[in-house]
Amino acid sequence: MEKINTIENSLAALENTLNLSITVIDNAGTFHTSQSIAIFNGMRVSHKKNLVCEIGFCKKCLAHCRHAMNKKCAKTQEPFIETCWKGISEIVVPLRRDGIHYGMFYAGSWRQAEFPPPDTLPKRFYTAYNKLPFLPPPEKIEELKNILTVFAVGILSLLKELNAFETVPDTRGNRIMEFIQAHAAEKIELVNLAAYLNLSCSITSYLIRNTLSKSFPELLNEERLRRVKTLLTSSHMTLNEIAVLTGFNDEYYLSRMFKRQNGQTPGQYRKRYISDDATAWQ
Q1: Closest of 259, 194, 248 to residue 221, by C-alpha
Q2: Structure pTM?
Q3: Which of 28, 146, 154, 198 has its CA 20 to 30 A from that of 97?
Q4: CATH for 171-273, among 3.40.1210.10, 3.40.50.2000, 3.40.50.2300, 1.10.10.60?
């Protein structure tokens, strides 16, 4: 727990130093220890801790800050300024290690005269929005991007020490696990891994068994269920939302697999482990 506390304390200190709110988007529950302990608490992974984001928070917020930005960050390694549908601007920093995109840092928030908010939000939103500072000049933004990028590299190194990117010593095992971690939320099968390794399905299956002592479905479900545990204990997402994000067909199949592995339903697990301050909706 010491390293987990170090990460959170460092993020809080950086917020105070830069006078910026920092949110971590862990899109598919990847950031967990090998014991399935969520590394970031509910408030850290939710924009709802920011008043302007909390007011009028809806599915459009999720569609932009989680899904659209996740796709954009998967294609770039450089931080950038992004303005959401509410007219709120933030710096987005991709969290990438060894060529794999895991999530994003958001830092802000600001307003820009050229991006006014829509007139359909609750009245109190505009009071909060008008208290936001204007976007700093380009040279200041570049300075903040550099600081956040260096900080992100440090956070990723600590996550590595916590086995958040779990790998095995064997090079072939590394490649197998990297593929599963990169694509666990997608509808992947053994044939996709075989193509990635440039091997036949039969040889790939043998290699997995010989290297990792498990089958491809077992490894895939283990990674998905670790992510389910992370999202159950660090968010208030519905089970169906979690199923979609973690690669399961539906919440019923997820529940069946979860109970088979853990001896309890996802709801029972959440009641037992969720912390009082885990109020995230993302």
Answers
A1: 248
A2: 0.64
A3: 198
A4: 1.10.10.60
